[in-house]
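debug: dumping io for the single-chain case to check the tokenizer round-trip. Nothing else runs in this session.
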Amino acid sequence: MPPFDDRANVILFVDFGAAPQKYAAGEFGEQLKFRHGRSPVKSARLKFATQTLSIAPTDDLYFQATSRGGRVMDHVLANKAVFKQTTGALGDAAIISGAVLASNRDTQDAGLVVLGAGILSKIFSAATRTEADTRTWHNLPQYLSFAILELPPGKHSLTVEFLDGNGEAVARHTKVLELDVVADRDNVFYVSDQSTAAPTSTVTDTKS
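debug: decoded output
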């Protein structure tokens, strides 16, 4: 976290990197898992006037997605997978048993009942959806961070460089921000390594 400065009047929220991706695993695709998003950007650097400020990640969406412990949906899906496996196996056994019984005139009626039950079991098994929900919000970042500044009122030009794992700027992601700082207000701006438009801004009430 950056050091607290009660004189700061500008906060710049920054996000970068690629969102974690969901994928399904397990025999029936019932296991929901995550992999890192593909992006070279690992940190950022802010340049303004003669100053340079490093911006390290303060939160990681991959960590948040994978460290919450057991999830109710995972257990539901696991139970469905067990149900699908069990009903499928029972259906196979019932169909075979029913066919054998039905081939004998003395047990034909019972065999047809068992055969029918086996077919119903297979239908239930086939209708059970066990797949994990792998829909992903692709424009989320991996990292969230922010910088706090004290700037005089008026227009300011700031450069945000997004850096790879070696601390080198990834040129295509560099942003030049033209900020208009309002007096006696907390000025809040937002920028992303994926953004193409000018940074959005919000002006909040006077500090108390």
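debug: round-trip ok. The chain has two domains: 10-28+35-67+137-203, 72-127.
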